[in-house]
Fold this sequence. Notes:
By secondary structure, the protein is an alpha+beta fold. It is built from 1 helix and 6 strands. It has a 6-stranded antiparallel sheet.
Amino acid sequence: MDGAQPTAKTWFIRIAPGEAQIRCAFRRVKSRIVRFTVQLEIFHREKWVPIVRYDNAHGFCHCDTLHPDGSQEKDGLFAGDANETFTYVIEDLRRNWKAYQVRYLEEAK
């Protein structure tokens, strides 16, 4: 190993201000992502609530679908290496955030 130090970055993509945002975070060594989390959050009942989270914790890439009752479903995901998967999941949440929001709000009724 060449001693390269990991770098970390976290930022938000405001897809619908005051309604929905994507929280993105990664840790990388050089140009290779080694850990990531990408989470869709909606503003519900006066706070930001995570409703879908993609990450590569637990040794594999997966999607956690979060429910209002606190339960969650974990589904494996393969879209290439961590860099490719990171890009893929951001685009998925950008394209499909409204459907994810509708699902969560219907469950919250």
